[in-house]
Amino acid sequence: MGMKDMLLELRDKALQDLEAAVDPQQLQELKVKYLGRKGPMTEILRGMGKIPAEERPKIGEMVNQVKQVLEQTLKDRAEILREEALKAKLDHEKVDITLPGRKPGIGHLHPLTLTAREIKRIFMHMGFDVVEGPEIDNDYYNFEALNLPKDHPARDMQDTFYITENYLLRTQTSGVQARTMQAHEPNTPIRMISPGAVYRNDYDATHSPMFHQVEGLVVDRNISLADLKGTLELFCREMFGDDVKIRLRPSYFPFTEPSCEVDISCVICGGKGCNVCKHSGWLEILGAGEVHPNVLRMSGYDPSLMNGYAFGMGVERIAMLKYGIDDLRLFFENDLRFIRQFR
Ligand code: DAH
User: Fold this and answer.
1) CA–CA distance from 172 to each of 145, 155, 169 (Å)?
2) Distance CA 114, CA 127 (A)
């Protein structure tokens, strides 16, 4: 076979292969095979010396022509493959704009938020301000200013998370009492509640290391326990219904004198006696009392002129009673089957 025929055969075979290539990798392999340094074209060019001199220019021209055709075909084929790949990708990733959209889920408030808001609403209607205090507080506001000096045994009533000697996670919202009085001119009347998170080292069905309280403080002239009782009775009726009764039981808190625990008639059995009220007919809901003269004095108020009452309630406890929830941990487990019941 002459050089010319060999070249033509090589060209046809290469063109056939190139047209059949289905991806860029195959094309690259063919490029190396036919046009590479070890390919037939290079070999032919190298062997030019053996060809009779008069035929050389013709053969040389042919070799160049075949090379050009192959290079052009390679380029064209690559372009076609690129377009096919893009088209396949576009077809594949097509968005069906006629599909119905996905509805965004609409959330709702957590039962504790609902309860705290309800408590706030009731007291705001009675003219109380809402005041906030820091969750990281110091020993002075959390204890000392509440008539709980260092080493006072009543500090053991609350298992405290200390951050340093002096700083702690507040165990109660009562510290806001002193902060509020100190934020006013001495002897300015006060009527405030202070909701917020508090922290104690406890964890079981009725205790969580983080829970919520609402503190209350009223300071004025001639405030009596009757004012306290009337206000709390109104609160309980708004919260639990008109039929609810309240009673005050003597108790002890360092920052009040006298102190009491406030019970409501059982919201489950109406006072007849059941498991929830342990057959007593009553449920404890908060602590309260007349503000201790030392507490007034330490925050610059004159106890011979001013007096008042204070109270503190647990938001989780109120919510549990209001909604009939028997395990406090449910509030913090974020189980939607529980949460969604309060929509
Ligand atoms: N701080 C108390 C507690 O966490 C609750 C309390 C009781 C607050 C009596 C008061 C109060 O303001 O007068 O147990």
Assistant:
1) 13, 12, 9
2) 20
Half-sphere exposure of 106 (CA within 13 A, CB side): 2
Model pLDDT for residues 78-121, shown as the tens digit of each residue: 999 999 989 988 888 888 889 998 999 889 999 999 999 999 99
Global pTM value: 0.73
CB atoms within 10 A of CB 51: 14
Distance separating alpha carbons of residues 176 and 146, to the nearest angstrom: 10
Instruction: Check residue 39 and give its pLDDT.
Output: 85
HSE toward the beta carbon, residue 229, CA cutoff 13 A: 10
DSSP secondary-structure letter at 101?
A: P
Cα-based distances in Å from 161 to 86, 157, 200, 315: 62, 13, 6, 20
Note every long-range contact of 62-67, with CB atoms under 8 Å and residues 24 or more positions apart, other chains counting.
Answer: 62/4, 62/7, 63/7, 66/7, 66/10, 66/11, 66/41, 67/35, 67/41
Report the Cα 69 to chain-centroid distance in Å.
66
Residues in the chain with pLDDT values less than 50: none
Euclidean distance between CA atoms 123 and 234, whole angstroms: 10
Does residue 147 have its Cβ closer than 6 Å to ligand 1?
A: no
Closest CA to 242 of 265, 211, 275: 265
Ligand 1 contact via 289 beta carbon (within 6 Å): yes
Main-chain dihedrals φ then ψ at residue 152, nearest 5 degrees: -70, 130
Exposure on the CB side of residue 234, measured as CA atoms within 13 A: 12
Tokens of 36: 């590479």
| Ligand 1 atom 3 nearest Cα | 172
Centre of ligand 1 from the C-alpha of residue 195, in Å: 12
